[in-house]
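queue> pop job 88
queue> type: inverse folding (structure -> sequence)
queue> payload:
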């Protein structure tokens, strides 16, 4: 083992209390990349000296980069690649990981040209038979190159929007965009076919496909990303597909089918109120029933308790549902919540707090509380006792609605 290797290992041992993935004030940390480093195959060879040397060297590079110690980082990078050049093909397979990590750091600090050069270098490390993890890593390197190309394409698109179509500069910019779109599609295509969560890559690719009028291609990419069982469950995949279909003015049934899956994954998603509106407009009775379930589901979450739109929708829809003779629908939703919603939403504390902070919200909640818990509900009673010159008529209407529609002692 070389003197350089021994020095690295010795210094690593002295610092064995440091974390293996270096952190700094910049907050840069790549655990997902470290996983690739740890799992790249070495052909079954367990060579302790080589592993210790490269591991120590990688950590020194990371530490120098994160502390902005550029000369030291450059020295370690040179040594790292020299070690790889002097090793057999199995050892060389570890090279792309550090190049990618360095490129991500450069991207984070806006050094795009340097990042692109680093990614190009990482692409060239193709020795021997690649493992599956190595193949994914190379695809990832190429995809990040694609993102850089997309960035250039996006800038050209903005320039193009400000040019006259008869202008010479328009044709030049248009041709540049075409070149970058072709390169980007090649680099992104392989990655987004690999099971994983590739949100920024998919969004960039789809934007380009749509720009060039390839709606079928964009739809296919988004559909596969959302529905292919080989891919992990990803709420964003359904959001992207929904927004695309909405731009296409797809039929309501199609939009509902996409949001129904999103509802099953994230029932508190901000699109759920839009989902409710679609269900409410549907002609199917089961959609109307689901529309009520969706509103209750949204308000089950603490982050939505102050959402006045959700409370307005629920207050209005409860009355409509009960006037439509669907008391059973309301009771079905309320049965699973009557033991915890009163303290969660309708306590005296919340009545006072809501009235002080947002009187409009308090009025909507009071109506819902009165319908579900009756006129004896503390929240309802507190709000109805308030004498407010502007809201006096509204509170009077709330009392009448509760008397007419409350599911507790109906008709009183």
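queue> result:
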């Amino acid at each position: 083992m070389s003197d350089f290797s021994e020095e690295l290992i010795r210094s690593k041992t002295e610092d064995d209390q440091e974390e293996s993935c270096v952190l700094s004030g910049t907050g840069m940390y790549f655990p997902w990349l470290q996983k690739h480093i740890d799992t790249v195959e070495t052909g079954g060879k367990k060579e302790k000296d080589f592993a210790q040397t490269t591991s120590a060297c990688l950590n020194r590079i990371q530490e120098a980069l994160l502390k902005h110690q550029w000369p030291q980082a450059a020295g370690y990078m040179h040594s790292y690649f020299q070690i790889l050049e002097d090793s057999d093909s199995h050892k060389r397979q570890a090279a792309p990981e550090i190049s990618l990590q360095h490129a991500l750091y450069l991207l984070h600090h806006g050094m795009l040209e340097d990042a692109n050069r680093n990614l190009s270098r990482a692409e060239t490390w193709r020795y021997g038979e690649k493992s599956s993890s190595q193949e994914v890593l190379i695809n990832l390197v190429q995809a990040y190159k694609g993102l850089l190309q997309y960035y250039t394409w996006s800038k050209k698109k903005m320039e193009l929007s400000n040019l006259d179509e008869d202008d010479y500069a328009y044709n030049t910019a248009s041709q540049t965009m075409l070149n970058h779109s072709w390169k980007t599609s090649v680099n992104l295509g392989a990655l987004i076919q690999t099971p994983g969560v590739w949100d920024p890559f998919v969004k960039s690719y789809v934007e380009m496909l749509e720009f060039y009028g390839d709606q079928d291609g964009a739809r296919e990419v988004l559909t596969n990303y959302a529905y292919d069982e080989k891919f992990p469950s990803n709420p964003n995949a359904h959001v992207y597909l929904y927004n695309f279909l909405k731009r296409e003015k797809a039929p309501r049934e199609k939009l509902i089918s996409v949001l129904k899956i999103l509802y099953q994954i994230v029932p508190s998603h901000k699109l759920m109120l839009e989902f409710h509106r679609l269900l409410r407009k549907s002609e199917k009775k089961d959609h109307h029933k689901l529309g009520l379930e969706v509103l209750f589901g949204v308000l089950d979450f603490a982050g939505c308790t102050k959402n006045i739109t959700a409370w307005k929708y629920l207050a209005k829809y409860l009355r409509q549902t009960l006037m439509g003779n669907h008391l059973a629908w309301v009771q079905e939703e309320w049965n699973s919540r009557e033991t915890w919603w009163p303290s969660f939403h309708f306590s005296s504390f919340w009545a006072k707090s809501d009235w002080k902070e947002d009187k409009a919200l308090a009025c909507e909640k009071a109506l819902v509380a009165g319908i579900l818990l009756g006129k004896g509900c503390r929240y309802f009673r507190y709000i109805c006792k308030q004498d407010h010159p502007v809201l006096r008529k509204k509170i009077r209407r709330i009392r009448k609605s509760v008397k007419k529609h409350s599911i507790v002692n109906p008709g009183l």
